[in-house]
Amino acid sequence: MSSSSHGARSRVTVIAGIGAISILGTVLAGCSSDSGDSAGASGTAQPGGTLRYGLSTAPTCADPGQAGTNQTVYVTRTVVDSLTDQSTDTGEIKPWLAKSWEISPDASSFTFTLRDDVTFSDGTPLTADSVKKTFDSVKDLGPNASLAKSYLSDYTGTDVVDSHTAKVNFSGPNVQFLQATSTPQLGILADSTTALTSDQRCAGAAVVASGPFTYSDWQQDKSVSIKKRAGYTWGSEVFGHQGEAYLDGVDFTVVPESGVRAGSLASGQLDAVSDALPQDAAQIEGAGGRILTRPNPGISFFFQPNVSRGVLADQAVRQAIIPAINRQELVDTVLDPSFFPATSPLAHTTPLYKDQSDIVTFDADKSAKLLDAAGWTRTGDGVREKDGQKLTFSVTFSPVFAGNQAILELVQQQLRKVGVDLQLNLVSNGELSEKQNSGDYDAVYYNSTRADADILRATFGLDGRNLNKRAADPELDAILTKQLATTDNTERGALIDRAQHLIADRGLSIPTIELSQAVGAASSVQDLKFEASSRLQFFDAWLSGK
Predict the structure, then answer these.
(1) Which residues does residue 491 pair with via DSSP β-bridges, in sequence order?
(2) Mean pLDDT for the chain?
(3) Cα–Cα separations (whole angstroms), residue 154 to 146, 151, 466
(4) How many angstroms separate the Cα of 96 from the Cα of each of 55, 151, 177, 371?
(5) Pairwise CA distance, residues 60 & 144, whole Å
(6) At CA 404, angle to CA 401 and CA 409, rounded to 5?
């Protein structure tokens, strides 16, 4: 972990590089412990106490398999265990529910040997049949499970070899799957949960899993409470300690206004808060707190244009918008140095990221020339026009990140300078999902977190979400499919590099900034950590001075 200070700011910044890792071979459980990323450790851990946490937006669903937003994953990760975990330092896949695994030479089947001492919170044992039923149930989930479904692309079923050996099969190579088993979206659930419908699984009481915490209360759009599970002894090798969680529980409260979150932390009403923005730092640090940050891997925040309608159907327009955006100004004006300007569809902490700043760059003159060449001319009000059509489009977004509106307002000003009229359409998280599912938008603005470059296929592939509403693109489609079947990491890296280039060059992604998690924490909060995908891990957290 590296620590850096900007001015007088007490900010702990973790920029852990996740290196390329091999996905083939047999991995056996070792004895090492990976403590991950933490901040504020002070003395010996003290068990007990309930941490009060302020979420910036409401969790959308209690089911880990349907969790998409960071705030939702913060909550759902606490109750579910995964087959594997991922080191925050190296990206290496580590044992968790699975003691070991074997991967077929073509990466089309994965055989997991499970621990035999794990039980769900209802007392039933976790077995290979639990793995089968969890993965089988994903295909029946609704659109909110798009990530989980992408991880199980071409899934043909799970063979229960014996009570604690599960063989997961695919119709072809699926090199991303091992990393996918470390995500909460593929966390293993009890039979009583996998038998339910998508909607039923979103109620907190319905989720039965094997995690170190269990839901004790779920008030949709208001609050969630979790309590420590007694007798938990099967933590991941990435965890900083073994045994039960230190905290008795966590009370999550939804507090949308960043100033109110910061004030509640400074006054002692909350112990930690999400989305601590730069303007909140003085108040938090003045009360003795600190801000913990870590960049997210995966897809940078970006405009995803609907290329089937409106002015964004013109590739020249999409290509011209990319250099019209001054990404460094977004960071300097709205955010702070713990955030990064996007230089590719992928964030720079994603394995196999390659800089695409030859395309994703700021050059207003280039933007204007591209629009001129495409026949878009300025009119009296400054907005360009072509064949009687104004160069205007709307972007639909939600407050899933507290800085979104301020960022987009500044982008709106930047685009206006080159003659593009951007209209902002702020909606709730639920409304954004509805819009995305219906295709009723000019562009949507969001990010997607994952520490594997296959997130490109899940986001831009025809077999993924394809919110671009694009038709077939033979070169791009072939590359996205081939990388999934490429077991050599160097060869896969070359394919991912080309995919990033094509996605940017086609204007399928108009990136802005890379998301970083910024969590405000009181001085009493110790060992509150980020996991490999930059989501919070509460298992090792504890409260001093209780």
Answers:
(1) none
(2) 91
(3) 14, 9, 17
(4) 27, 18, 15, 53
(5) 9
(6) 170
Q: Would you list the DSSP string of 349-383?
A: TSTT----TTTS---HHHHHHHHHHTT-EE-TTS-
pTM, two decimal places: 0.85
Per the CB < 8 A criterion, the answer to whether 16 and 88 are in contact is yes
Report the SS3 class of residue 411. helix
Please give the Cα distance from 247 to 236 (Å, whole number).
17
Note whether 4 and 13 are within 8 A (CB): yes
CB-based contacts of 427: which residues, under 8 Å, 6+ apart? 396, 397, 398, 435
SS (H, E, C) 159-221: EEEECCEEEEEECCCCCCHHHHCCCHHHCCECHHHHCCCHHHHCCHHHCCECCCEEEEEEECC
Name residue 18's beta-bridge partners: none
pLDDT of res. 430: 85
Q: Which residue is it, tokens 């007088």?
A: 8
Tokens of 213: 């915490």
In degrees, rounded to 5, the angle at the alpha carbon of residue 532 between the alpha carbons of residues 27 and 451 is: 85
Tens digits of residue pLDDT in 239-257: 999 999 999 999 999 999 9
Percent of the chain whose pLDDT exceeds 70: 92
Please give the structure tokens belonging to residue 14: 């973790």
Helix H, strand E, coil C: the string for 423-490 is: EEEECCHHHHHHHHHHCCCCEEEEEEECCCCCHHHHHHCCCCCCCCCCCCCHHHHHHHHHHHCCCCHH
Beta-sheet pairing, 11-13 with 93-95: unpaired
pLDDT for 40 equals 52
Structure tokens at 297: 């891997």
Q: How confident is the model over 452-492, as pLDDT tens digits?
A: 999 999 999 998 899 999 999 999 999 999 999 999 999 99
What's at 487, amino acid-wise?
A: T
Interatomic CA distance for residues 55 and 38, integer angstroms: 19
The tokens 């580590």 sit on which residue?
94
CA angle, 198 as apex, 69 and 296 as ends, to 5°? 15
